């Protein structure tokens, strides 16, 4: 090991600061495009757009639409965060009371679990610091989602206006805006976590076990907010989307983003609160949880015994290097090999993932070689300690990193209409919606195979080399390029909003072609699967994170082995495998109820507002926004309560062994359903886009818009909406959140759990 304590104290916060400054620089560059101000030519006359629309009216219309989307997004998040503030307060009390009760609410220091000859902080102190960490994690996750929403609503109209100059200019604005979200989230999460560790260490001193157990509250706070953000945002966006599609496209035969459609503003708002704020909070939760899992496992290794500060901060060094690698990768897309034409967009985005993975592999090798002892041991409860070499950790982290890339490309293959699977789904629409549904479900089930094998290989390799610590750092490896993944994810909804604004503002056909091209693999609206690549990446990382947290929980609860033949564990296993189905049923029904109200409202407006179809009267957009907001906030509570209360009830009433079985069952079942649901929904979505684009002879034979095949595709897409944007993405939070919650409450469950089996 070469790196010293001073290097860590400088490198980690410096990397975070560089990430924040880079994000602010990108934001500044985006701000150069003005909205609401007209351009005047040198001769003093107003410039005129291609369709004869003067520049002032275009700018004013774009500004008006952007303001409506921003207002709706901010109103929803503000209301949701108000509810979450109440939840955070109540759950903070639960954390403090449960953990403080382990030591009888004593202020006296107590013998350490890992070494009875040493004294550790009192139960009151441990409970207090865990509660503070929970609040900090929740606040950071809230900030991450809010900042993502703000930059997305700030950039959508600017992307539209830049599209008048060419597709390259529009791409630069959209991607820079996505990078703002990616780097702010990754850097803020890392900086807050590192500073929290340093502050906590002032009290805990060399008690790394107690320190890192308290830090797990940070991951719990992040994932708690992410759950409600994902579920609430997903219900919001899909209620609006279903209303816009079923009534607008199928019944009224008008475009998706037609300004006559009453649900169009709510649909665009949904992109920001669901796909951006929700995804941002989700991946922040994954980062926080994987880091916490690695820290907890490392604290009971020789790192903790030797008081090796550099090795104990190894997970933070990975994330720090990831920020710098993603920064260099982003410059490739925006400055070094910038997009000039439509055909360069898709290769540029794919290149981002490949370049960041290759560069990160080199960075991981250097950090592992110079930041870890040549040989060290990882303690495994109930088993002999594992002797590990530093190059073993390189392969552990690398396996997670490359497994993530494989999952991403496999997801794209099954969700992009450039490949056979989605084209087969589109072709099945010839005979109606029923065959479309059958083909889409089959595709989703099949798409699970390769990702699960990739995850299995990463798990086997990592566990063989470094036990549960290997799995924890493998999850960190998959998340090490988080900033790039989030930039690509945010780029999608920003581009989609830009297309909607171009349509609603009545901009020229050429401008709308360019905004459509931002979401294209080729020309027109042949939409790629890259958005779903990030979704697959999120689910894959959730699997590794959950397993790492499971290992940390087993260690903290003192469980030597999880034997599924025993009745306690088997009961937990089978119930845990059922939970993702229960959760999915709740979220899908919630979308259905909200969508039903939206469909009825859109139909009412078309039926009762004179001149709406003729375009002489504006629809009541605010009414549709209110329906989505009210429904999503009301419907997010039951599934959220299911996830948050289940570990508390099972651990308290049935004990640590049953809870271990429950976590294992939820992990195995949840990953399969999440991948299948997301890919099925993605395939139906892109099958519809394939028919609408008509970019090939095969696609033309299925269209045009309004044909029977197209209507069948729209129905399939509508069925898939809650799968790919609500239930599927939320499931990865379910498996992570239950695991990290169990880890936080493990001391209480170990001391007081299993009431029903005591007596």
Automatic annotation (TrEMBL):
EC annotation from Swiss-Prot or TrEMBL: 7.1.3.1
Cellular component terms (Gene Ontology): endomembrane system; membrane; vacuole
InterPro entries: PPase-energised_H-pump (IPR004131)
Subcellular location(s) per record: Endomembrane system
Membrane topology, as annotated: Multi-pass membrane protein
UniProt cross-references to PANTHER family, sorted A to Z: K(+)-INSENSITIVE PYROPHOSPHATE-ENERGIZED PROTON PUMP
GO MF terms, alphabetically ordered: diphosphate hydrolysis-driven proton transmembrane transporter activity; inorganic diphosphate phosphatase activity
Any one biological process term the GO annotation gives: transmembrane transport
Domain of life assignment: Eukaryota
Keyword entries, A-Z: Ion transport, Magnesium, Membrane, Translocase, Transmembrane, Transmembrane helix, Transport
Coiled coil: none
The protein, known as: H(+)-exporting diphosphatase
Transmembrane domains' residue ranges: 6-29, 83-107, 127-149, 170-203, 309-332, 353-372, 392-415, 436-461, 467-488, 531-550, 570-588, 642-675
Main location: membrane
């Amino acid at each position: 090991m070469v790196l010293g304590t001073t290097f860590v104290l400088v490198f980690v916060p410096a990397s975070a600061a560089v990430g924040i400054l880079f994000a602010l620089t990108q934001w500044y560059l985006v701000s150069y495009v003005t909205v609401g101000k007209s351009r005047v030519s040198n001769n003093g006359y107003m410039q005129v757009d291609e369709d004869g629309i003067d520049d002032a009216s275009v700018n004013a219309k774009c500004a008006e639409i952007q303001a409506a989307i921003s207002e709706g997004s901010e109103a929803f998040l503000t209301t949701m965060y108000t509810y979450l503030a109440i939840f955070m307060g109540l759950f903070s009390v639960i954390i403090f009371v449960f953990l403080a009760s382990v030591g009888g609410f004593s202020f006296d220091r107590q013998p350490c679990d890992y070494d009875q000859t040493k004294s550790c902080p009192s139960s009151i102190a441990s409970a207090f610091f865990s509660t503070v960490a929970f609040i900090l994690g929740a606040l950071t996750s809230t900030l991450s989602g809010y900042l993502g929403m703000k930059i997305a609503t700030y950039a959508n109209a600017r992307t539209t206006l830049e599209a008048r100059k060419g597709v390259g200019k529009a791409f630069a604005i959209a991607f820079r805006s996505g990078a703002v979200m990616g780097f702010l989230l990754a850097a803020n999460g890392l900086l807050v976590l590192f500073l929290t560790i340093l502050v906590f260490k002032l009290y805990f001193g060399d008690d790394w076990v107690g320190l890192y157990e308290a830090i797990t509250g940070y991951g719990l706070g992040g994932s708690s907010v992410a759950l409600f953000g994902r579920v609430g945002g997903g219900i919001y966006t899909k209620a609006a989307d279903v209303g816009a599609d079923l009534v607008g496209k199928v019944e009224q035969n008008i475009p998706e983003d037609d300004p006559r459609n009453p649900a169009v503003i709510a649909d665009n708002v949904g992109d920001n609160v669901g796909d951006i704020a929700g995804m941002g909070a989700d991946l922040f939760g994954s980062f926080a949880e994987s880091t916490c899992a690695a820290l907890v496992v490392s604290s009971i290794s020789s790192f903790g015994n030797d008081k090796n500060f550099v090795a104990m901060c190894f997970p933070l060094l990975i994330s720090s290097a990831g920020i710098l690698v993603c920064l260099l990768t982003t410059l490739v897309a925006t400055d070094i090999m910038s997009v000039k034409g439509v055909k360069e967009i898709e290769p540029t985005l794919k290149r981002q993932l490949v370049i960041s993975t290759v560069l990160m592999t080199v960075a991981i090798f250097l950090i592992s070689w110079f930041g870890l002892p040549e040989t060290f041991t990882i303690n495994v409860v109930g088993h002999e300690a594992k002797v590990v070499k530093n190059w073993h950790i390189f392969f552990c982290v690398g396996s997670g990193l490359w497994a993530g890339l494989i999952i991403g490309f496999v997801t794209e293959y099954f969700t992009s209409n450039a490949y056979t699977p989605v084209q087969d789904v589109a072709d099945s629409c010839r005979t109606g919606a029923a065959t479309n549904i059958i083909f889409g479900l089959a595709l989703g089930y099949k798409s699970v195979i390769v990702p699960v094998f990739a995850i299995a290989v990463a798990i086997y390799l990592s566990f063989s080399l470094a036990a549960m610590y290997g799995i924890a750092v493998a999850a960190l490896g998959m998340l090490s390029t988080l900033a790039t993944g989030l930039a690509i994810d945010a780029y999608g909804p920003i581009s989609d909003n830009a297309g909607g604004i171009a349509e609603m503002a009545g901009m020229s056909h050429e401008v709308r072609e360019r905004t459509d091209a931002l979401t294209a693999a080729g020309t027109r609206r042949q939409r790629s699967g890259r958005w779903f690549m990030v979704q697959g990446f999120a689910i894959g990382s959730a699997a590794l994170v959950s397993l790492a947290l499971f290992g940390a929980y087993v260690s903290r609860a003192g469980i030597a082995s999880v034997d599924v033949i025993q009745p306690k564990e088997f009961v937990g296993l089978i119930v845990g495998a059922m939970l993702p189905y229960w959760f999915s049923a709740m979220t899908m029904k919630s979308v259905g109820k909200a969508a039903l109200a939206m469909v009825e409202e859109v139909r009412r407006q078309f039926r009762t507002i004179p001149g709406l179809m003729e375009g002489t009267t504006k629809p009541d957009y605010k009414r549709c926004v209110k329906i989505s907001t009210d429904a999503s906030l009301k419907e997010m509570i039951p599934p959220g309560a299911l996830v948050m209360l289940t570990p508390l009830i099972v651990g308290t009433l049935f004990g640590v062994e049953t809870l271990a079985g429950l976590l294992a069952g939820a992990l195995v079942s949840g990953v399969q359903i999440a991948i299948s649901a997301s890919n099925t929904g993605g395939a139906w979505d892109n099958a519809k886009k394939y028919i609408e684009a008509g970019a090939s002879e095969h696609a033309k034979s299925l269209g045009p818009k309004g044909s029977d095949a197209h209507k069948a595709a729209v129905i399939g897409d509508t069925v898939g909406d809650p799968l790919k944007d609500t239930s599927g993405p939320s499931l990865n939070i379910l498996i992570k959140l239950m695991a990290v919650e169990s880890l936080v409450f493990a001391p209480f469950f170990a001391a007081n759990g299993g009431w029903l089996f005591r007596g």
